[in-house]
Design goal:
The protein starts with 5 loop residues before the first strand and ends with a helix. It has helices at residues 16-27, 47-52, 70-80, 99-108, 135-138, 141-150, 164-169, 181-192, 218-231, 242-252, 257-268, 274-283, 286-366, and strands at residues 6-12, 34-40, 59-63, 85-88, 94-95, 113-122, 129-130, 161-163, 194-205. Helix 2 links the parallel strand 2 (34-40) and strand 3 (59-63). By secondary structure, the protein is an alpha/beta fold. The longest helix has 81 residues, at 286-366. It is built from 13 helices and nine strands. It folds into two domains: 6-214, Alpha-Beta Complex (Spore Coat Polysaccharide Biosynthesis Protein SpsA, Chain A); 218-284, no CATH class. The chain is 54% helix and 14% strand.
Length: 367
């Protein structure tokens, strides 16, 4: 397996200033049997020039006609990959030079292993490392692994090396999701495949201000609620979802009133225990949002009723006007009948005068 071709998929969108370093960190790997597939998600910043400048036959560049988001771009890359092994790199991050070598060695430890990942370090003032602890090592077995993963998005996409067949079997990235799509996908893989963890920092991640995974609000909550709905009935111990629900509650504060109410109704479907109800009460002002929403709905209802009354008045006016027109039409028909009678009488009188003239002329000719 150590000589297997690894296809590295790099989605990018308007990241030309960071893209060069991301690609170079892949080219500098000590594991050399690689191909790089750059999927340009309809960039407008001449990212193509950065890729072409490498002039390396191992790099393929594919530009999408329409922006479809990171899931779409990664799925295109997976389908285009020639290798049986696929790794992901983000266009603003970088790999340590031994990243692939370390992960290949970890994968070789278990012939059933279908995916490996490592730690990553956030290159910010905090220098945060994810995952921050060794939970994946301390929780053996698929069940334990899933419980840890449900506790938060602990697998960075650029840290992953996986077999192409497991990515396809798991159903690929969900293209309807705008953020946390990697978390949702890796949970699906964890359910059906064997995943191993390299307990080393092998990737550097830049916390971009435009990164989709740092966004709060309805889009993020959509993915979180999807995950909640997929796994809620699979675990009797609902405390597994504590972090997930707490995150959803944080997202509520960034939503519009209507989105927050819809999200809360979704949460209520799962009959949350009192501890979660207390969390809702502590972290959100839902009552205020409910009242605001009810007032908004009442206002719209009043507007509708006023408009309905307005339409009814117009309808009544129309019916009155229609009756008026009908009366005028009846009068017109009566007057028309009267004129027709007068016309008939006039024609009879004219005929009478003509006959009388004919008789007069006949008598005059005889005399």
């Amino acid at each position: 397996m150590d000589k297997e071709l690894v296809s590295v998929v790099i989605p990018t969108y308007n990241r030309k200033t960071a893209l060069e370093n991301a690609i170079r960190s892949v080219l500098d790997q000590t594991y050399e049997n690689i191909e790089i597939i750059v999927i340009d998600d309809a960039s407008t910043d001449n990212s193509e020039d950065v890729v072409r400048a490498f002039q390396d036959s191992r790099i393929r560049y594919i530009k999408l006609e329409k922006n479809g988001g990171p899931s779409k771009a990664r799925n295109v890359g997976i389908n285009e990959a020639k290798g049986k092994l696929i790794a992901f790199q983000d266009s603003d991050d970088f790999w340590y030079e031994n990243k692939l070598d370390e992960e290949m060695r970890e994968m070789q430890k278990d012939e059933n292993c279908q995916m490996v990942f490592c730690k990553y370090k956030c290159n910010s003032s905090s220098d945060r490392v994810v995952p921050i602890d060794d939970d994946f090592s301390l929780m053996p077995g698929k069940e334990g692994f899933l419980k840890v993963l449900l506790g938060g998005n602990k697998i960075g996409t650029p840290t992953v090396l996986a077999k192409k067949e497991i990515l396809q079997k798991a159903g690929m990235f969900d293209e309807s999701l705008y953020t946390l799509e990697d978390w949702e996908f890796f949970l699906r893989i964890a359910e059906i495949g064997t995943i191993r963890f390299v307990n080393k920092v092998l990737v550097g991640v830049n916390d971009s201000i435009d990164g989709v995974n740092i966004l709060r609000g309805a889009r993020r909550a959509k993915t979180e609620l999807l995950i909640l709905s997929q796994y809620w009935n699979k675990y009797n111990d609902k405390w597994v979802f504590k972090n997930l629900i707490s995150s959803i509650l944080e997202d509520l504060d960034s939503m519009s009133c209507e989105e927050a109410v819809e999200c809360t109704m979704f949460l209520k479907k799962y009959e949350l225990s009192e501890v979660y109800i207390r969390l809702i009460a502590e972290h959100t002002d839902l009552e205020k949002k409910y009242k605001k929403n009810n007032a908004y709905q009442a206002s719209k209802l009043n507007e509708f009723k006023k408009y309905d009354n307005y339409l009814q008045e117009k309808l009544n006016e129309y019916e009155k006007y229609n009756s008026y027109l009908q009366e005028k039409l009846d009068e017109y028909e009566k007057y028309n009948s009267y004129l027709q009678e007068k016309l008939d009488a006039h024609e009879k009188y004219v005929n009478y005068l003509l006959k009388k003239q004919d008789r007069h002329d006949s008598k005059k000719n005889k005399s």
